[in-house]
Design a protein that fits this description.
The structure is a homodimer. By secondary structure, the first copy, chain A, is α/β, with parallel strands linked by helices. A seven-stranded mixed beta sheet of chain A has the order 1-2-9-6-5-3-4, with helices on both faces. In chain A, helix 6 packs antiparallel against helix 7 and helix 9 crosses helix 12.
């Protein structure tokens, strides 16, 4: 069993092991005093994994309740959240009980926000079942829902009491969803770990599974190190947004359709690399992303994307902070006015 | 100017002064870097005070926006909260802006929860305009909304960057709302401060105004001391719930109509005193409450109230914690099973 220990407002373990899902109850039992657990999941994950999880939880002595909502980003909304609240109320959950998020980022974000706010906070456990959720959403404590006005506009910082990653669950992922996660995995290599980047560049989507447990642990450790230095996201943690300023703009331009988050981040990294990296580094980044079936460009003129950077909520006042990696493994935070950033990206500065 | 400093997850000042409202902008300016502030208030307070507040804020250089909702507990719901979120989004508030709660407990709880969660947290400023909000809601960081299933079921801990109490605003309160606050004021005397209790017992609702600034400061200081020892409400802070176990039951029995929170707490204190205090102390408590037009008994058999204690969210598992003050100024936390508590209150144990 590989265990990564995270020191946030409280200390908690992330367990990574193939096959972990069917023994989750005993690990969760070690980390919460809850009598009852609410397993929140989506309809796709429910069919695949919720019976195994519930059975292991019951074996460990928990009363279990299950809340299922339709898969997809559209469910990460106030309506679903209010349904979860009513469900917790109806099933008489108390402050000393726990919520388990079983699924991808949508499930984790929504269930985590419910756990942060129902009765002003219950224990929260994550069982991420997508690559993106395992390497990204499971560390950092960010939870959120979307509003009509934008993604992740409402949320809270909520640290889990433990996280259980079972890489076996990634084998049932559709290839496109796996690729989506690889966008963030490549990002970790670029911002902090040249060796990870090389390992990824030496593999493809078709043969990465043999080293995936190691890759997941490395990504989690990188995120852990960055987040521990900046739990409340006011400085250094910003480097995790590499590729995201333009990535979010691409997602916004396409109304969060067409490109997945990981695909948009992949393009965002490439657009930034073209401005700041050597031709060799840019080519290596693109080749690596292509090996995981990720896009490296977008058929939209920069001028049409840029307005969508301007509404990025990370914009502080009229200033924009963005991340540059001139070489793999080294990230820096730069600041520009929205105007100067636009001129620079359009090649006029 | 009287200033009480609170040491919570961050340190912040509570300013108490007659007439403070019309100079609020300069004090708020000292405590936030916000460019824009959203003043959230209800339709009654808006007419009385929001022009003075907005004008002072604008003089201090803030861009101001105002969100007004109907006065009353019914507004402390998900619907109003979502409207506030949409308002903040539409007016393009950022993470570095601030929310100001101008009003009583409903406004403070709802605006505070919005400030805790919009963009995962903005600066929050409280200008409480009821006695209850000045002595109770403004310290401790508890924010919440109600669900159909119960009051305050969804919320967060959110410390303000500053609190401004202007006792002059209490002069426009309807007498019943003033009494409501006095229920909590008497509670502070009972749990921690025999001198405060004597001061209150020596006055009436009709002549308390001359010492009210002092009384407010004393209550805030007591709550500050208790909360500082227990920010996340896991132990000692429980003593603030004196009168609340049965008080909440009374509120629940009457569907939060008939009795205000302060009135229900007043009755809750008397019911507990009858079980645990000397006849003299019980009589003194009742006389004091009556001087502020508060009720001291309820025309409902204990057996009918008790089921409403059982659904108290403060119940941990099947155990109930409740507060006893045998003499004014001294509180202790006791624990019983829901069953034993019921037998004891019904006089069968």
């Amino acid at each position: 069993m590989k265990t990564i220990t995270v020191h946030a407002s409280h200390t908690y373990p992330i367990y990574v092991q193939n096959g972990l899902l069917s023994d989750c109850g005993s690990y969760i039992r070690q980390n919460t005093k809850a009598a009852s657990v609410a397993v929140i999941t989506d309809d796709i994950v429910q069919k695949l994994y919720s019976d195994a999880v519930l059975s292991s939880l019951q074996k460990a002595g928990f009363r279990t309740e299950r809340f299922v909502f339709p898969n997809g980003e559209a469910s990460k909304c106030a309506k679903t959240l209010l349904d979860v609240y009513d469900f917790l109320c109806e099933k008489q959950f108390t402050r000393t009980d726990a919520i388990i998020a079983l699924g991808g980022g949508v499930v984790g974000d929504l269930a985590g926000f419910a756990a942060a706010t129902y009765l002003r906070g219950m224990d929260f456990i994550q069982i991420p079942t997508t690559l993106l959720a395992q390497v990204d959403s499971s560390v950092g404590g960010k939870t959120a829902i979307d509003l009509k006005g934008g993604k992740n506009l409402v949320g809270a910082f909520k640290q889990p009491v433990c996280v259980l990653c079972d890489p076996n669950t990634l084998q049932t992922l559709p290839p496109a969803i796996f690729s989506d996660g690889m966008g963030e995995v490549v990002k970790y290599g670029m911002i902090r770990d040249a060796k990870l980047f090389e390992l990824l560049a030496a593999h493809t989507q078709e043969n990465i599974f043999s080293v995936l447990e190691e890759v997941i642990c490395t990504c989690i450790s990188i995120k852990r190190d960055v987040v521990e230095a900046d739990e409340f996201d006011t400085g250094e943690r910003m480097i995790l947004n590499y590729g995201h300023t333009l990535g979010h703009a691409i997602e916004g331009y396409y109304h969060y359709e067409t490109y997945s988050h990981g695909s948009a981040v992949a393009i965002g990294m490439c657009l930034m690399a073209e401005k700041t990296c050597s031709p060799e580094q840019t080519a290596a980044l693109k080749a690596c992303l292509e090996a995981y079936h990720l896009p490296t460009s977008v058929p939209v003129p920069m001028a049409e994307l840029l307005p969508f950077c301007g509404v990025d909520k990370k914009r502080a006042g009229s200033q924009l902070r963005y991340i540059v990696c001139e070489t793999a493994g080294k990230a820096e935070i730069r600041t520009a006015s929205v105007t100067d950033f636009a001129a620079w990206m359009e090649g006029n500065a």
